Amino acid sequence: MLPYSTLQQAEATVGRELTFAEKLWFNYSANIPDYIINVHGFIFLLLVYSLIPLPYVLAELSKSKEMNKYKIQPKVKRPFSDIFSCYKNVMQIFLLGGPMLIITYSNMKLIGIRTNLPLPSKWEMFWQILVYFVVEDYINYWIHRWLHTKWGYEKIHHVHHEYTAPIAYAAPYAHWAENLILGTPTFLGPVFIPGHIVTFMLWLALRQIQSLESHSGYDFSWNPIKYIPFYGGAEFHDYHHYVGCHSQSNFAPVFTYCDYLYGTNKGYLYHKSLLHKRDDWKPHQEDGD
Ligand SMILES: [Zn+2]
Ligand SMILES: [Zn+2]
């Protein structure tokens, strides 16, 4: 809840006229407790998870050969029942995690994530979210490598690898311990550099969208996300799932530089160099039979 009851008081405190976005934020948040903002954020993330994969679902269910050109493993097509079952499983886990909101709320207070005015500038949000991405990517690279040890894989990580040809909804499909372990570094960036709750929610949404895209099973050549420097993407992560248990390639969740630096992209590069000769894993293969 904001410590001002009128727009005039808010502008007097900020020391200038509020921007359009700040007025919207004032109208939304002035009279609701912070934990309700948190609940709304949770619903927003559920909507992101539910809606973003829909174009990929339509592509998967379509019989279009044109669309199949973009399928990374075109021989594997999933029926609606499989896709819905995956969505249902993940949503059950999300909804069971609802009561965790109270804990998240106290943690956010502890970290110093603020809800008041002024809103952060675009550049402040950009740099903070970039740091959050880099911190999380680096730490989860190493955790993911540990999850591919014999113990880590057999006890925890094998669940996520049930999908050797992933679909977008399978991005968070994993053992509860994996979601907990890999989810923790998501909050480390905000712990080191706490910002506004708008930045925090945008970070969680963008990270989720990125994860859904990299599990989508489709590599659209015109996707603007592909032009982000050092971005891994769907083809990069799909290969990791394709190899499965014995994968020693492509551990980083977002960028490619960790795998390059630590030499864990060699298998992937080798397979890419052989793609034109192979039939069992060939991106953009036109014949999906
Ligand atoms: Zn893995
Ligand atoms: Zn994955």
Automatic annotation (TrEMBL):
GO terms for cellular component: membrane. Residues 130-264 form the Fatty acid hydroxylase domain. The chain crosses the membrane at residues 35-59, 80-105, 187-206. It holds the Pfam family FA_hydroxylase. Keywords: Membrane, Transmembrane, Transmembrane helix. InterPro entries: Fatty_acid_hydroxylase, Sterol_Desaturase_Related. It comes from the Eukaryota. One of its GO terms (molecular function) is oxidoreductase activity. It is found in: Membrane. GO terms for biological process: lipid biosynthetic process. Belongs to the sterol desaturase family. This is Fatty acid hydroxylase domain-containing protein. It comes from Dipteronia sinensis.
